[in-house]
UniProtKB/TrEMBL annotation:
The keyword Protease applies. The record marks Y360 as: Transition state stabilizer. Residues 204-419 form the Peptidase M1 membrane alanine aminopeptidase domain. This is Aminopeptidase. GO terms for biological process: peptide catabolic process; proteolysis. It comes from Stygiolobus caldivivus. The keyword Lipid biosynthesis does not apply.
Length: 782
């Protein structure tokens, strides 16, 4: 079967949230093939071929049509309804008492919009026409070709044909939009928001233009569509979605200006770069099936950091990559519920559960490791070869590695096979005796697991001399030219493995850079979680780096010590000493990274020390004039210091803010109250629509780290679990949020573990199992 083209006409009743549709499906069917369309929540009224009505059966999300062995056009009449709740398919996205209609189809929700063959390998051309009220705007993947006003007070917007593309990349947005636009050669680059918010779109527009130009050069293929929309959707489940030519974002992933924090600017640049990379890697070339989801997500993740690093070299963005991608991926890959990067997926529903740190962060980290081994120029040649060969079609993971090997001339397959098809990763023990260095590998995991040997690209520095080799066996012995006086492995932290030193002093004597010092901290914190070292050994590592003046190292120590404090506030008190030492020294630094870390230090200090919170809280009087990098810290301090007295002030401020960036700061602060009922009141705002659906799950891991309110938060979660599942049906977002929340909620509340152990949640089972495993790990430290 081959689907060539869909011509779709949709007549919308915007007020009633319904539409009537007709489509022409141009297809080729073999002698033994029947046309079976996917259609969920749609009512198919008729099917015709050459004017003749065809018999069809609609059941269980499928429309089986009684025809075969044709090359022609099938005409389908149908009716659909816009979802008033939910965040996938075609749905209502409310804002300020109004709404737009928007769509989100990955991985298998285009079938909730039109009858279609909803499978990534069945690429087709789409010709979309939409009839709406004259005062409404319409956005789709392509520019409008013509607009015709009709006698009934409506208009028909007819869009140009798309290139061949997968169904999950379709987009339709209807409502009131504001836009700013600019030209990049012959491409219209456009940022769109709901009315009143476009003032924060200028940074996004500039980043998008520069990123497209970067990718044009890097990939050797020009951006293929005549326009690129970047659309801020007021309710959006994910960070963003790479619909070809019409990328959708939650507002906090797209909107920023000079009054935004540095963290916000970085996020906007990173997410835009990620989604634009998809316009080539995912849209132009698409995986054949969801087994190779990593092909889309790993590569877009890797390329987004490469692009942002090129556009903003002072941001030190590869450091951000390690903190945001590699660290979280290694943690996820240490659990028994992990999966290979190339995961076998039976259904699109299963695919929802692997949009995770493995498919994004681990895959991207392996790409970084491969690039470091074969060289940047060879890697780029391989990528260009792959895109040229498979453009406008589909490919598999093996196609990618073969292309990379052929384009680069390097033995890539030998390196990557283990890393793509096997789960987990290695820990390398380092033993030194005189001139001899013995490396022994084992699989690293938090709990007992299957032993495994990996092919590891080792990078090391012995007495100041760098070398690299492939470690293929369980152990290897290297002999240095003289006695080993300094030694470090995993240079620049490019390898996806951990290192445990017999004598960590050799590492500190090797002049490690900030990436390598960060790596040591990340390794030894995870060794502590796994029970491979005791707290005394871990604390010794931290104390060796307590006076470090690099933002990456300081923020890592802050985060680790805060996690430990959250587990047991009376046992893990080193954080107070660290914060007293570090906070003051960052207050006078002017670079943006330093301002970001200063804000993090202030927020954490306020959280763990009531006296400090009281002193910082007085700055709330001048909140609107504060540096945006410290606003959340001051609001948090205000909540902690004044409790009930602060609640109404913060709630009023939350309700009065126009932009989600500011609302998120205030909301995060309102989860830090010491009084349980105030935190529960805050959470319950999500049940009545005052907190956006997109944020109600996001805040669960954050509030779970508040040790003063856990029991109340747990009872709230238990009470509203079914409602939350309805909110996020079809997205797996709730599962990821619960993975971050359950371990902290359950540290001292046994019924948390009992509840999730005795109940079955099939759509989020993997994440629940992961959460319970993390809970048991944290309890060992409590």
């Amino acid at each position: 079967m081959e689907i060539l083209k869909y011509e779709v006409f949709l007549d919308f009743n915007f007020k009633e949230l319904t539409y009537k549709g007709s489509e022409k499906i141009f297809c080729k069917l073999g002698a033994n093939e029947k046309l079976v369309l996917d259609a969920v929540g749609l009512i198919v009224k008729s099917v015709r071929h050459e004017g003749k009505a065809l018999n069809f059966l609609q059941e269980k999300g499928k429309v089986a049509i009684d025809i075969s062995n044709i090359e022609g056009v099938i005409e389908v009449e149908f009716e659909g309804k816009v979802k008033e709740t939910g965040l996938v398919g075609i749905y209502k996205a409310p804002y300020n008492g109004k709404y737009i209609i928007s769509t989100q189809f990955e991985s298998s929700h285009a079938r909730e919009f039109i009858p279609c063959v909803d499978h990534p390998a069945y690429k087709a051309i789409f010709k979309i026409s939409v009839k709406v009220d004259r005062d409404l705007d319409v956005i789709s993947n392509m520019p409008a070709e013509k607009v015709v006003e009709t006698e009934d007070g409506k208009k028909v917007v007819e869009f140009k044909e798309t290139p061949k593309m997968s169904t999950y990349l379709l987009y339709l947005g209807i409502g009131k939009f504001e836009e700013i636009r600019d030209k990049l050669e012959d491409i219209d680059v456009i940022v769109a928001t709901v009315p009143g918010k476009i003032s924060k779109g200028k940074l996004a527009l500039e980043v998008a233009k520069k990123a497209i130009e970067f990718y044009n050069n890097y990939f050797g293929i020009k951006y293929q569509l005549p326009k690129e929309h970047l659309i801020a959707v007021p309710e959006f489940a994910f960070g963003a979605m790479e619909n070809w030519g019409a990328i959708t974002f939650r507002e906090t992933a797209l909107l920023a200006d000079e009054n935004s924090s540095f963290a916000q600017k970085r996020r906007v640049a990173s997410v835009i770069a990620h989604e634009l990379a998809h316009q080539w890697f995912g849209d132009l070339v698409t995986m054949k099936w969801w087994d190779d989801l990593w092909l889309n997500e790993s590569f877009a993740t890797f390329m987004s950091y490469k692009a942002v690093d090129a556009l903003f070299p002072s941001w030190d963005f590869w450091a951000e990559f390690l903190m945001d991608e590699t660290s979280s991926a290694m943690f996820r890959d240490s659990l028994s519920t992990t999966h290979p990067i190339e995961a076998h997926v039976e259904s699109p529903e299963e695919a929802e559960q692997i949009f995770d740190d493995i498919s994004y962060g681990k895959g991207a980290s392996i790409l970084r490791m491969v690039e470091a081994y074969i060289g940047k120029e060879a890697f780029q040649r391989g990528i260009q070869y792959y895109l040229q060969k498979y453009k406008f079609s589909n490919a598999t993971g093996n196609d990618f590695w073969v292309s990379l090997e052929q384009g680069s001339g390097q033995p890539v397959s030998e390196i990557v096979k283990d890393w793509i098809t096997k789960d987990g990763y290695p820990l390398i023990h380092v033993n030194v005796e005189g001139r001899k260095i013995r490396l022994i590998q084992e699989r690293f995991a938090f709990t007992n697991t299957t032993p495994r040997v990996y092919v590891i690209p080792i990078t090391l520095d012995i007495n100041g001399k760098k070398t690299t080799f492939l470690m293929k066996d369980e152990s290897v012995t290297i002999e240095a030219e003289e006695d080993v006086k300094s030694l470090k492995l995993n240079l620049d932290r490019t390898g996806f493995y951990r290192v445990l030193y017999d004598d960590v002093g050799l590492f500190f004597d090797s002049s490690p850079n900030h990436l390598e010092r960060w790596g040591l901290l990340d390794d030894y914190y995870n060794f502590l979680l796994a029970g491979k070292i005791g707290y005394e050994t871990y604390e010794n590592i931290v104390r060796n780096l307590m006076n470090d003046d690099n933002y990456m190292v300081v923020d890592e120590i802050r985060g680790e010590l805060f996690n430990l404090w959250s587990i047991n506030t009376s046992k893990y008190t080193l954080i107070n000493e660290f914060l007293e030492l570090q906070t003051a020294r960052w207050s006078s630094r002017k670079d943006e990274n330093s301002k970001r870390i200063y804000g993090n230090l202030l927020r954490t200090f306020a959280y763990v020390d009531n006296k400090f919170a009281m002193g910082l809280a007085v700055a709330f009087e001048d909140y609107d004039r504060l540096d945006p990098n410290i606003k959340e810290a001051v609001a948090t301090a205000y909540a902690i210091a004044f409790g009930e007295e602060a609640y109404d002030d913060l709630l009023k401020k939350y309700r009065g803010e126009k932009f989600d960036e500011e609302r998120s700061r205030i909301l995060n602060a309102m989860l830090s109250f010491r009084e349980p009922y105030l935190v529960v009141n805050t959470l319950s705002l999500g049940l009545i629509g005052e907190i956006k659906r997109q944020d109600t799950a996001r805040i669960l891991p954050l509030v779970a780290r508040n040790p003063y309110t856990r029991f109340a938060v747990w009872k709230w979660l238990e009470t509203y679990m079914d409602k939350l599942r309805e909110f996020y049906e079809g997205t797996a977002i709730l599962g990821r949020s619960l993975r971050g929340a359950i371990p902290y909620l359950g540290i001292n509340i046994k019924e948390v573990e009992d509840y999730f152990t005795t109940r079955v949640f099939p759509d989020i089972k993997i994440e629940i199992d992961s959460a319970l495993e993390i809970l048991r790990i944290l309890r060992r430290l409590a």
